[in-house]
Write a structure and sequence with these properties.
The chain has three helices and ten strands, in the order H-H-E-E-E-E-E-H-E-E-E-E-E. By secondary structure, the chain is α+β, with helices and mostly antiparallel strands. A hairpin with a 2-residue loop joins strand 4 and strand 5. The chain starts with a helix and ends with a strand.
Length: 172
């Protein structure tokens, strides 16, 4: 299957305006509303709970509460199937360098490890990194190498959609 039209439109718009997005003025909330929410909608996730499902069965929980030690933290997105957490997505403003800044990767990996999720995704729309979160994270001077990443490359992403019958992503 080809790239969904909505994702192609989002990529085109982002590339056209990227110079202004990498400035400190363009924040994470804007990115989530203007790019990430529509991106995940285009992949078949009910980001806005348009089906009206009860809290326990929503596909996507925004800022889901998880306990890390004595603190309660909130990953930007929690993706679920049948009410079961599958992975987190932590969004960062495009001005943050995901490839070289260790803090966002540590934050995401700490969330996922605490929730016993095997992987999670760090993204700013222009780049994303999928991290193996099965090992307890430690602070590092350099972020660990992600399992999959577009950071520092210019590639067309492979697009997948969520299968309602299974808990895995299936290629389009």
């Amino acid at each position: 299957m080809t790239l969904p039209v909505e994702i192609a439109r989002l990529v085109e718009t982002f590339e056209r305006n990227q110079d202004s997005y990498v400035q400190d003025r363009y924040g994470e909330t804007q990115l989530r509303r203007e790019y990430l929410d529509p991106f995940f909608r285009a992949l078949g996730w009910d980001v806005d709970n348009t089906r009206g499902w009860a809290e326990a069965y929503k596909d996507v929980i925004h800022e889901d509460a998880i306990r890390i030690g004595s603190l309660v933290k909130a990953p930007d997105y929690c993706f679920r199937i049948g009410g079961t957490r599958k992975f987190f997505v932590e969004a960062k403003a495009p001005s943050i360098n995901l490839k070289d800044d260790p803090e966002p990767a540590y934050q995401l990996r700490r969330y996922a490890w605490s929730a016993k999720l095997p992987l999670s995704i760090l993204m700013d729309f222009k780049e994303f990194a999928v991290y193996d979160c099965r090992v307890r994270p430690t602070k590092a001077t350099k972020p660990p190498k992600p399992a999959l990443s577009t950071a520092g490359t210019r590639t067309t992403p492979t697009v997948g959609t969520k299968s309602r019958r299974s808990s895995r992503m299936t290629p389009c």
